[in-house]
Amino acid sequence: MTSAPTDGLLAQVLRQEAGPLVARLSRRFGDFDLAEEAVQSAVAEALTGWRRDGPPHNPAAWLQVAAQRNALDGVRRSNRQRALAQRVEPPAAKARPGTDDRLALLFACCHPALVPEARLALTLRAVVGLTTPQIARAFLVNESTLAQRIVRAKRKIVDAGISLAVPPSEQLSERLGDVLAVVYVMFNEGFVSSSGATQDRDLAADAVWLAGVIAASAPREPEAWGLAALLTIQHARASARFDEHGGLVLLRHQDRARWDADAIAEGEAMIERAAALRRPGRYQLQAAIAALHATAPSWEGTDWLQIAMLYELLARLDPSPVVLLNATVARAQLGTADDALATLDGLADRLASYHLFHAARAELLTTLGRHDEASEANRTALGLTANDAERRLLTTRLHRHPLDDGS
Amino acid sequence: MKYVLMYVSRPDLDAGADPEAAQALYKRVYEWFGENEAVMADGGAELLGVETATSVKHGDDGPVVVDGPFNEAKEIIGGFSIIEVADMDAAIEVVKSWPLLDLPGGSVEIRPMVEDYSHLEQ
């Protein structure tokens, strides 16, 4: 039995079922930690059992039965849990009918009272159905450190009374920002490391799916649609981002015929849904920029004027180095290389320690025939990357953009 | 659930405050307790300054009495209350309107209270 089709099916079933199962069992037993452990064990059982014997006839039901059995075992094992299970009244306030279980679970896992590093890990486990070893591989972190972090976060959810509930509408937009940020990081992780660090799970694909689920559950939230659109469009270009040797292919050299036109159209439809709500935001702006790139016939035939304007708007909401640099790169396509270089040099005091600033300078200097200075800039860029590589890997993840070449 | 709210301030930052503004803020604190009466399980207490604190500490030859607070942090606990609300989100909502958060060093630490002692009963 080959494992590839089983793994694909597994991934699909797990992300569909894991979150709602955790939410349901949490409600039933009044204990998030217990529920999450039960589902996690069922996922682990599925990973080994299905690969060995092939997938069961009804995978979703199989997972549910296994998780339920684990939860009951857990209850029997632990005296404390037994006391909890025998409580006459389960916390009924948390069971608001009609709210999406998965969304409620997401709000708990991405709660601002949890440290940011734990939010993503917990979301991947409880909502998307990844195992701790899979997450550790994806983020190149030590498995026991990660496990510790997850345990602490879960314990805090239970002990500090962080509820598994969708916040009331007046707090929804603000709290949703925390959730969307986690999904955004999740996508970028997967997008950047899509050379296969997770092996059996495609984090980027999971993030695209999750963003779509969130938007569908919170349809009045334009940034939810914005993020779903952004990730859908970026993901549509995924197969053209690496060459046959696994090297990164920059946007200007990508074979546009390999992009997924249907997915791009789907992303554009999401942008329109978001725009109809008339509350612009950073994800919507990034999605609009991505859509312009995705629908351009070529690098040269790209609507750089609109892209430059959208970056101006984005820079007002998010004046980070990456955005400022991309704004300048976009503007550089409109005017002369001389002008672009002057603009870029104007950012030197803010961006001098950022390797892509020097890479962009090098490219402009090459265009202008100033090869010595170009080599110098390239060397600086390389030096910064080399010295920084390890630290960047660990610390810039939360700010990393999927493509740093103006897209 | 019950939570203890610990009202934290930075006396070094508050020292320069305009007395009139401080008076107005104090009035808002009083009103805040009124507005949140329903969730107050115990209004707690406002504490006199750390310069009045005395600590009794572990010593090899028995307890030792010393002048001062248990640690020398710039942040001090100026008072505490106990609230009873549904969950952490509700506690955060109550705390967000604490008037002294307007002061630069103001913060409130929210700590769930231990209420379940069933593990000791077995």
Summarize the structure.
The complex is a heterodimer of chains A (407) and B (122). By secondary structure, chain A is an all-alpha fold.
Ordered list of secondary-structure elements with their pairings:
The complex is a heterodimer of chains A (407) and B (122).
Chain A (H helix, E strand, L loop, with lengths): L2 H27 L2 H22 L5 H19 L1 H7 L15 H9 L6 H12 L4 H8 L3 H17 L9 H24 L10 H15 L4 H15 L24 H16 L5 H14 L8 H14 L3 H12 L4 H10 L1 H4 L3 H13 L3 H25 L12
Helix pairs in contact in A: 1-2, 1-3, 1-5, 2-3, 3-4, 5-6, 6-8, 6-9, 9-10, 9-11, 10-11, 11-12, 11-13, 12-13, 13-14, 14-15, 15-16, 16-18, 18-19
Chain B lengths: L1 E8 L1 H4 L4 H17 L4 E7 L7 E4 L6 E4 L8 E9 L3 H9 L10 E6 L10
Describe this structure in words.
- The complex is a heterodimer of chains A (407) and B (122).
- With 407 residues, chain A is mainly alpha-helical.
- Chain A folds into three domains: 1-87 and 100-218, no CATH class; 225-297, no CATH class; 303-407, Tetratricopeptide repeat domain (Serine Threonine Protein Phosphatase 5, Tetratricopeptide repeat).
- Chain A is built from 19 helices and no strands.
- In chain A, α11 packs parallel to α13 (282-295).
- Chain A starts with a helix and ends in a 12-residue tail after the last helix.
- Residues 87-99, 194-199 and 386-407 of chain A have low confidence and may be disordered.
- Chain B has 122 residues and is an alpha+beta fold.
- Chain B has one domain: 2-Layer Sandwich (Alpha-Beta Plaits).
- Chain B is 25% helix and 31% strand.
- Chain B has three helices and six strands; from the N terminus they run βααββββαβ.
- In chain B, strands 2-5-1-6 form a four-stranded antiparallel sheet.
- The model of chain B has no long low-confidence stretch (mean pLDDT 90).
- Chains A and B meet through α4 of A and α3 of B.
